[in-house]
Amino acid sequence: MLRPELLALLREPNSADNKYTRGVVGFVTGSLEYPGAAILGVTAAMRCGIGMVRYLGPQRVGQLVLEVRPEAVLGLGRADVWVLGSGISADHEADAPEVLDVLTQFSTAAIAVVDAGALAMVDFSQHPKRTILTPHAGELAALLNRLGQVTSRSEVEADPEAAALLAAKLTDCQVVLKGNINRMASPNQKVRALGPMSAHLATAGTGDVLAGALAALLAANHVVVLESEEVFLDVIELAVELHSRAAELASHDGPVSALDVAESLRKAIAEIS
Fold it and tell me: Cα–Cα distance between 1 and 272 in angstroms, integer?
């Protein structure tokens, strides 16, 4: 049973709303190598009831996004939250368009979800007011090494709570270390263990789905998220819970893919609303 304060974050649209008041999410995700990450994140955001999604990335990937989500808007513009890095390799050249777009939006955003390749690109010394890092164990090990803390994936997996707390302290950002039990660590050295998660999430692309769902819920509540640290943390917890529930609902029809999870988010929201 979800806490009442989490349920309150699933805001129903009213007659005074428009696409902007319902929240806008921008994505700098996907690449020619991994175009699916963009589609998964955008779909997840749309299935969480967001007002608008913008996509910034390679033209070919943008066209693929439009084929699946024709309501998406290509190009720069206003966004309440930016999702950065899903499906973008950390091996890109420093002057690659994807890297420059990641760095530009990170430097100007008020709220950012930093995933995958962006974890190796951004300068955490000047981060948005609300910044969430969403690594898996391997990505967290790489991040800690980048920050001068020599470690390995196996060491992160052996003590995930300590690793997540260390990353939160070093970056001054909220960290969600993904796994069967998600560790949600804050710079103030508080941690929440969320889970166990649905085993059906153990498939490629579900992390991209989580990033999109998280961004959508943050954007829908962006005014109060910027005002309240507690609401910020509650939104993250809600996104993690919906992600797991969506995977369980998708499994009722047989084996699950990441796109199934993204499409089932609306069912998960309807079930608990």
Answer: 9
